Amino acid sequence: MTTHIDINVDVGEGINNEAEIMPFISSCNIACGGHAGDLKSMRHVVQLAKEYSVKIGAHPSFPDKEHFGRKPMEMSCVTLYTSIKNQIKTLVSVLDEEHLQLHHVKPHGALYNMAAVDENIAQIIVEVMKGLMLRAKLYVPYKSVIAKLAIEQGIPILYEAFADRNYTEDLILVPRTASNAVIENEEALFNHVNTMLMSQKVRTVSGVLKEIKADTFCIHGDNPNAVQLITSLTKRLEENGIKVT
Q1: Which of 107, 181, 110, 169 is nearest to 138 (CA)?
Q2: Does the predicted model carry a pTM greater than 0.90?
Q3: How many CB atoms lie within 10 A of CB 209?
Q4: Each residue of 2-25: pLDDT tens digit?
Q5: Is 195 exposed, middle or buried (0-12, 13-18, 19+ CB in 10 A)?
């Protein structure tokens, strides 16, 4: 029986709700300058994560603050590699100041979505991990291209599922342009997560149950109801004997 769960949240994205979120999560993904964030915000969030013993991950993106990293960008492999590497290195430098280790890397937005299906993009991220000689894990979607490449090349992975997003039958997130993309209801959120936890299946928007594996569950920190959803989910899980850890 499942007795624990890892809940991760994207933070340092300018929402400034991290102090309210940190007590209820077990890992976080810190924006490191691509779509959001700077040294000041990174230091602030790292210190909060340290205070609450939350595992720290880098959240690199296409270098596109204008569109919050949610639109694909045409970039050369070298340019994208350098951008991702520098974003992660910046966060690592902040962690060094606090004598902390980087736990994981989770790409953001369009970079995450493209790496799930595009071998070139996925390979660039894997090469960054190898080049930096990080002992960190890579958060990846189940049955994704990046998961396959990382496993083949010795990069440790954790499968990630989304607590506050709906899925299609192809295990792709429903586009944010759709009205049913984001789960806003507390009961629906708990049921969504509980189904994945207990049966290793996700109920898609068409009502079909599809196999999925998840070692960590994400709630987006920029969700307007993020704090309420996270606190409610944590409470419901604990009532069911499942600890966030």
Answers
A1: 107
A2: yes
A3: 13
A4: 899 999 999 999 999 999 999 999
A5: middle
